[in-house]
Write a structure and sequence with these properties.
82 residues, mainly alpha, F1FO ATP Synthase, 2 helices, elongated
Length: 82
């Protein structure tokens, strides 16, 4: 009985970690997509500020990717520590 409970809990943990990593990737993709769309629109409205907008966009995209990577690492650690 104990072995069956352990297998079920491990399976649920792996499923949860997989869903969590997927949601982190989807969230990062959506965030960077909105960021890029807003940046392109801003550059179209004010072309003389394109350098500043592009720099801010790259920095923000790096922050978004960092948070997504952190979320995925936490999900993997949740599986590996079981």
């Amino acid at each position: 009985m104990f072995l069956l409970e352990s297998v079920v809990q491990t399976g649920i943990g792996v499923l949860g970690a997989g869903i969590g990593a997927g949601l982190a990737a989807i969230g990062a993709g959506m965030g960077i997509g909105r960021l890029a769309a807003s940046s392109v629109e801003s550059i179209a409205r004010q072309p003389e500020a394109s350098g500043d907008i592009r720099g801010a966009m790259i920095l923000t995209a790096a922050f978004i990717e960092g948070v997504a990577l952190f979320g995925e690492v936490i999900c993997l650690l949740a599986v590996l520590t079981k």
